[in-house]
Write a structure and sequence with these properties.
Elements: E1 6-11, H1 18-27, E2 32-36, H2 39-53, E3 58-61, E4 66-67, E5 74-78, E6 90-93, H3 105-114, E7 120-125, H4 130-136, E8 141-144, E9 151-156, E10 166-169, H5 173-187, E11 191-193, H6 199-210, E12 216-219, E13 233-236, E14 240-242, E15 247-249, H7 252-259, E16 269-273, H8 282-290, E17 299-301, H9 311-318, E18 327-329, H10 334-343, H11 346-349, H12 355-365, H13 375-392, H14 397-407, H15 414-432, H16 440-466, H17 469-478, E19 486-488, E20 493-496, E21 499-505, E22 508-511, H18 517-544, E23 550-552, E24 557-560, E25 563-573, E26 576-581, H19 589-610, H20 612-619, H21 625-636, E27 640-642, H22 647-652, H23 655-662, E28 667-668, E29 672-674, H24 681-694, E30 710-712, H25 719-724, E31 727-730, E32 733-736, H26 737-748, H27 760-766, H28 770-779, E33 782-790, H29 875-880, E34 885-893, H30 967-975
Parallel strand pairs: 1-7, 1-8, 2-5, 2-6, 3-5, 6-7, 9-16, 10-12, 10-13, 11-12, 13-16, 17-18
Antiparallel strand pairs: 3-4, 14-15, 19-20, 20-21, 21-22, 23-24, 24-25, 25-26, 27-29, 28-29, 30-32, 31-32, 33-34
Helix pairs in contact: 6-16, 7-8, 10-13, 12-13, 14-15, 15-16, 17-18, 18-19, 20-21
Length: 976
């Protein structure tokens, strides 16, 4: 036994603030450890300290949960899971009177004797431990704390007459369920709290009680260990319990521990009995009220100095007796029983070759029997785990996955879900042990996720079985002073005395206008009396509803299912909007705050998910200097900025800075700087909403239909709207900015000064007719000159000539969707030329060779449909028929004044020179191209050979723009 620093024992009854005092003392030190008797209480204390100091310095360690930040200063643990040898400045053990517990007492006794803080040690518990601590811990100082409120015995009460804010305590599952069923019928329901519940289920059930959905809590003695609840009366439905070995009467101090939960701070509490429990004897009731109990004379003890030389020596050391008059050897615990059972099995005994094997077997035997099955079945499971750890050093992932998968089911009744929760705790414990599984973080997360799903399902099953929402509402209604009786049916109609008053819509009440003003006021008071519990129930369901049940309209409305429950308003920053809840003022501040808080959580997660690339870039501290400024402009522009607005900044960026931005998906387009992932329909809709809010628009703009490459240029919208929608205006239409960049890549290889014609690929990716394309090009700064020429029909060839696929700068084929990942686009009618989505297939037309080329071959226009094959006309008919003509356009770049809108984009179109290896178009009128290009002497080239043509631009030989995201691919193709 060691003594270091100041050692004190803070003793007294419940509701004296001992645990709160210990937390204050721990936070006064640089480091500290506190051991608690239940993981439910450990989670409660952990949450309190996190609220005070933040999660980065607080650890939570229990048998099934381990949260340990790198900079941990304060450790909150169950007593069994307390780390040893930390050397913390402060150490505290709560409920130290459990040293006398027959099952777990030896662990608390060991901490009493050996656990110390460097500067301060506190033992918290009942005053019955004073003599034992004084004898075993020399120089320990004692502090007596008195109860804040009075505790009074109230005798026996029927369950139907339980006062509000009561807790009925039972000691068997059957008793708890029967009590809860009765309360459901008589009082609208009850919350259920048992020690076997997970913290998640327990908290959800307690929330039902704490927020007033139910007025009664049905619980086991688990509530006696420091769980702080708003309880005014505690009633015992039984006075005997099964302690794991036998049925026995509860000791007076155990009854006092549970009864002491009544009363909160300075508010008096009462206790009594109910159901089949007999009234307490006068002396016992008086002792509980005055906190007078016999002192503890014997503490449970087990030898901590274990000998791992062999199994026999280990068992002998565990069964060693003590000569200390205050200590008694603990009864055979589950871990020792498992050790004896496994060591007698040949397959296990053969693996015990040295002390390391014996220590490993002991570690496995200490896995608690959460399942509560027979000792033989528990030993079989432990034996299998030991074999895995001994032979391979790890529990196999596939085997563990099968065990977890069998448990990961949320169907079944309460008992079935409770058993699965107990089973998953075993695998959660295994996952917490260092070195037992390959990927500890994965399995900790996986088992925790299963436990959470089962916890939620169990909470739902408990609520469904033991809470009658309608009865609860009716009982609340009857407590009001108004003589009118109000009700709310399943359709949301609110009735008083059978008359419909109005309808509840979300969290607002729409009253009918049929009553006079005086009547309306009285009727509204009656209706609101019924609606308050309904609002509570809806708020609880909404708060626990998944995000998939919520939606955001294009006008910024917040929907929960089909109910409008709020709207978005401008926040402190454009990407941080505020959710405004639609809740009746009479519903109360608690409901308003709960609804608003749930909506704000949804909005924050929605923005974070849709704008994840943008937010990640804004948080990247490696982006500095000018690149930081560009990133800031992108954040201001919700991920889209016209290049002309930051042309000088982009020009000044070096390749390293560009690389930092490209890591976050930034594309340096010729017209726009943007993040392609933010062009998807969902981010686009949200961007328009946030943009409209930032501009304080009364009516938010609608987003374009998803999947359209071009849309009409409506004069009712300004250019900034189209930018936020992901489009750029050009003529009478606006083109999606990612498709515009693909078009710009095609235009770069054209002779933009001498003139060029539109290729089939250009028309295909825009989904426009030739006339519409000409208007689009004019809007982009090109001059479109219209011409006509004689159309020459091509005779069908016996076999189509092979076409060599053109080289492309883009990784994506021209007839597929752009690499923006835009989804949700509906495939429109191919006949609609203005609504072709980015993923509409478009084939490159290939000219067929002619058999007798008596005339120069003329390529079919891209916007003309192919003709059906016909028989060769006679010479007479050819002479009589007038020649057919076709319309074509020649596009050339029109330089603008320096500083104009297109000045910075001129380089994107070739600057006016013809590309290397190119030729000017030839033709009759004004140098316009007509027919096929000819060779020397005016004869068609290779007229004696089958030929094939492609509408793709010729391979570019000029320097590749480093801003092109496919520059690396082009360079690779050039080398090959």
């Amino acid at each position: 036994m060691s003594n270091r620093g100041h050692v004190a024992a803070v003793l007294g009854p419940t509701n004296t603030g001992k645990t709160h005092y210990a937390i204050e003392r721990m936070l006064a030190h640089r480091t500290g450890v506190i051991g608690l008797p239940l993981r439910l209480l450990a989670r409660e204390v952990y949450d309190k300290i996190v609220a005070l100091r933040g999660p980065s310095v607080v650890a939570l360690v229990t048998g099934e949960e381990r949260i340990v930040p790198e900079r941990t200063q304060y450790w909150v643990c169950t007593v069994e899971a307390m780390p040893t040898g930390l050397g913390a400045d402060f150490l505290a053990i709560d409920e130290i009177q459990l040293c006398a517990d027959l099952e777990r007492g030896h662990v608390f006794t060991d901490r009493l004797l050996h656990a110390r803080g460097l500067h301060e040690t506190l033992f918290l518990g009942a005053d019955t431990m004073r003599s034992a601590i004084a004898a075993l811990v020399p120089r320990c100082q004692f502090m007596r704390r008195e109860r804040f409120s009075e505790l009074v015995y109230a005798g026996s009460k029927k369950i139907s007459r339980m006062p509000p804010r009561s807790a009925i305590v039972g000691f068997s599952v059957e008793n708890l369920y029967a009590t809860a069923e009765l309360l459901r019928r008589q009082k609208g329901g009850a919350a259920v709290v048992m020690g076997a519940l997970s913290p998640r289920t327990r908290n959800a059930q307690v929330e039902l009680y704490q927020n007033g959905d139910v007025d009664v809590l049905v619980a086991t003695d688990a509530i006696g260990m420091g769980l702080n609840l708003d309880i005014r009366h505690v009633a015992f439905s039984g006075l005997r319990k099964f302690d794991g070995r036998r049925m026995r009467d509860l000791a007076p101090n155990e009854l006092a521990q549970i009864a002491g939960r009544a009363g909160r701070h300075t508010q008096a509490g009462t206790f009594g009995v109910t159901g089949e429990a007999p009234p307490l004897e006068d002396g016992l009731a008086q002792a509980i009220m005055e906190h007078r109990f016999a002192p503890v004379r014997k503490l449970q003890w087990r030898n901590p100095d274990l000998d791992f030389g062999s199994v026999a020596r280990l068992i002998a050391s565990l069964e060693e007796r003590t000569e200390d008059e205050w200590l008694t050897r603990a009864r055979e615990a589950d871990d020792l029983m498992a050790l004896k059972a496994l060591s007698g099995r040949p397959d296990v005994a053969d693996r015990l070759r040295d002390a390391r094997d014996v220590r490993l077997l002991w570690d496995v035997c200490r896995i608690p029997d959460f399942r509560g099955i027979s000792h033989a079945e528990h030993a079989d499971l432990l034996g299998r785990i030991f074999e895995f750890l001994h032979d391979t050093g790890r529990v196999p992932d596939d085997w563990l996955a099968r065990q977890v998968k069998r448990i990961d089911r949320t169907d079944g009744d309460i008992d079935t879900l409770s058993k699965r929760l107990a089973y998953i705790r075993t695998w959660t414990y295994v996952a917490q042990r260092r070195g037992w599984v390959d990927d500890e973080s994965h399995w900790r997360g996986a088992t925790r996720a299963v436990e959470d799903r089962l916890s939620d399902a169990l909470h739902g099953a408990l609520t469904q079985r033991f809470v009658d929402r309608r009865t609860s509402v009716l009982l609340r209604r009857l407590k009001q002073k108004e003589s009118l009786v109000a009700d709310v049916n399943e359709m949301g109609e609110v009735t008083v005395e059978g008359q419909v008053l109005g309808r509840i819509e979300g969290f607002r009440f729409r009253q009918d206008d049929t009553a006079s003003p005086d009547e309306a006021k009285t009727l509204r008071q009656a209706a609101m009396a019924a609606l308050r519990p309904e609002f509570h129930l809806r708020a609880d369901r909404m708060y626990n509803a998944p995000d998939t049940e919520f939606d955001l309209t294009e006008q910024g409305g917040l929907m929960w299912g089909e109910m409008a429950v709020g709207k978005l308003v401008g926040g402190p920053e454009p990407l941080r909007p505020t959710a405004e809840a639609f809740v009746e003022e009479d519903a109360g501040a608690e409901i308003i705050q709960k609804v608003q808080r749930r909506l704000q959580h949804y909005v924050d997660r929605r923005v974070a998910a849709q704008f994840e690339p943008l937010l990640a870039m804004s948080r990247d501290e490696t982006i500095t200097g000018l690149a930081r400024g560009v990133a800031f402009r992108l954040v201001e522009g919700f991920g889209i900025v016209p290049r002309t607005e930051i042309a000088e900044d982009i020009k000044a960026l070096d390749q390293d800075a560009r690389g930092l931005l490209r890591k976050h998906g930034v594309r340096f387009g010729q017209f726009t700087i943007f993040q392609p992932l933010l062009l998807k329909p969902a981010p686009t809709r949200l961007r328009l909403v946030l943009w409209g809010l930032s501009r304080n628009m009364d009516e938010l703009p609608d987003s374009p239909p998803p999947g359209l490459v071009t849309i009409p240029n409506d004069t009712a919208h300004d250019r900034e709207y189209y930018t936020m929608a992901g489009y750029r205006t050009a003529g009478t239409r606006a083109i999606r900015i990612d498709m515009l960049e693909r078009l710009a890549d095609m235009l770069r290889g054209q002779d933009s000064r001498g003139g060029f014609e539109a290729s089939a690929d250009m028309l295909s990716i825009t989904g426009l007719t030739l006339e519409q394309f000409a208007d689009l090009m004019a809007g982009l700064g090109y001059k479109a000159e219209k011409g006509e020429r004689e159309k020459v029909k091509a005779a069908p060839a016996p076999e189509p000539a092979a076409t060599t696929a053109p080289e492309a700068m883009d990784e994506t084929p021209l007839n597929t969707a752009p690499p923006t990942g835009l989804e949700g686009a509906d495939t429109p009618d191919p006949a609609a030329p203005t609504e072709i989505p980015g993923d509409s297939p478009a084939e490159t037309p290939v000219e067929q060779p002619q058999e007798t080329p008596t005339e120069p071959p003329v390529e079919m226009p891209d916007d003309m449909p192919p003709e059906a094959p016909q028989s060769p006309p006679s010479e007479a008919s050819q002479a009589d028929a007038p020649p057919e003509t076709e319309v074509f356009y020649t596009f050339s770049w029109v330089p603008r004044r320096r500083g104009g809108a297109g000045a910075s984009e001129r380089g994107a179109h070739g600057g006016g020179g013809k590309p290397k290896g190119g030729r000017r178009p030839q033709g009759k009128d004004g140098g316009k191209p007509q027919g096929k290009p000819r060779g020397k002497g005016g004869k068609p080239r290779h007229e004696d050979k089958p030929r094939s043509f492609t509408a793709a631009p010729k391979k570019k030989e000029k320097a590749i723009d480093p801003d092109n995201p496919f520059a690396a691919l082009a360079a690779l193709k050039d080398r090959s």
